[in-house]
Amino acid sequence: MKINVSIEKEYIKCPVCNGAGKIEEIHSDIKIKHAIVIKLFNEGYTYRKIMKLTGYKSTNSISDILIKNKMKLEKPIKNR
Question: Is the pTM of this model over 0.70?
Answer without folding.
Answer: no
